[in-house]
Amino acid sequence: MAEENSPGKSDRKVALVTGASRGIGRAIAIELARVNYEVMINYAANREAADEACAAVRAASVNEGVRVATCRANVADASARENLLQQTREQFGRLDLLVNNAGIAPDKRVDLLDATVDSFDHVIDVNLRGPYFLTQAVARWMIEQRSSGEIDDYRPAIVNITSVSAYAASPERGDYCVSKAGLSMMTKLYAARLAKEGINVYEIRPGVISTDMTAGVKAKYDRLIEGDLTPIKRWGTPEDVGRAVAAVATGMFAFSTGEVINVDGGFHLRRL
Ligand code: NAP
Fold first, then answer.
1. Domain membership of residue 115 as a residue range
2. Tens digit of pLDDT for each residue in 56-71?
3. What is the rounded radius of gyration, in angstroms, for the C-alpha atoms of the chain?
4. What is the pLDDT of residues 72-88, one digit of tens each?
5. How far is the CA of 44 from the centre of ligand 1 (A)?
């Protein structure tokens, strides 16, 4: 069972991490706890995994009494997003960091010429439309918190977890690629709009990371990594991505916004 949190506005920074019950999101939540954040763990359906992630985040926290909570919400659903933010307000009373991590791969990899509208709509809804409007609502709340002057030294930020698929074309999962390219542009849009509001926006672009999402294509990527896919010849870990988010969250990139941080073993390097 999740422990009870004490009521009232948090004294510490608070992060909302979407899709934090498993994989990359879980590791992001843990690394944020290590740099003294309190964390709202969002998930889609897997309550057991969310409770386990909650305990792991609590265990990783640098201080006693750190608040960690879970909230089931499908980021593709407008009323679920509203409830997620309402729960975050009630549990923590503030928000310093939004990490748009929740994402799905298409149920089936199919050739571009056989791709379906249903798969396209579903992937875009979760990976792009959801974060686009969650970010809009969070940005409004962050602006409100900033203008209230209630939080000392309030420097909020937003991080989007995209993918090398934002630029690398995989014709058997076009919907996923388009969703990540869109999320990449979304980073630029919000970075440009929110700088004057004191909110920095970053894109973290993972390569091949070992999670449930890639479990089904493990043999294929084992072979590619053994070959010449990446200069750094290993799978990425969720912690590799988590630590990059923690670096941004500690304010070390205060004069950078709209920045892309590749966490991909050098996959993006063109080589001759
Ligand atoms: P994963 O292991 O499949 O975990 C997905 C997480 O997202 C789970 O916590 C899941 O919750 C949650 N989720 C799924 N749909 C959701 C929805 N509609 N609303 C809210 N939460 C939802 O995935 P992952 O590999 O960690 O990927 C995380 C992110 O990194 C994704 O955006 C993915 O595209 C991106 N990425 C992954 C890789 C990779 O190689 N793994 C590479 C580049 C980018 P439940 O537990 O409740 O299902």
1. 2-263
2. 999 999 888 889 999 9
3. 18
4. 999 999 999 999 999 99
5. 9
Count the domains in the chain: 1
271 inside domain:
no
Residues β-bridged to residue 161: 204
Q: Which residues form ligand 1's pocket by a CB distance below 6 Å?
A: 18-25, 42-46, 49, 74-76, 101-104, 126, 161, 163, 206, 208-209, 211-214
Residue nearest to atom 8 of ligand 1 (CA): 19
| Region of 29 on the Ramachandran plot (φ > 0 left; ψ -120 to 50 alpha; else beta) | alpha
Establish if 143 belongs to a structural domain.
Answer: yes
- Secondary structure of residue 209 in the 3-state scheme: strand
Give domain status of residue 229, yes or no: yes
Å from CA of 105 to ligand 1 middle: 8
Write the CATH number for 59.
3.40.50.720
Domain assignment present for residue 181? The answer is yes
Q: Please return the burial class of 17, using the count of CB atoms within 10 Å of its CB with bins 0-12, 13-18 and 19+.
A: buried
Which residue among 72, 211, 222 has the greatest number of ligand 1 atoms within 8 angstroms of its CB, and so is best to mutate?
A: 211
Q: Is 221 a catalytic residue?
A: no
User: Could you tell me the pTM of the whole model?
Assistant: 0.97
From 37, 176, 190, 202, the catalytic residue: 176
Q: At what angle do helices 47-60 and 23-34 cross, to 10 degrees?
A: 20
Closest-CA residue to 161 (of 39, 20, 12, 30): 20
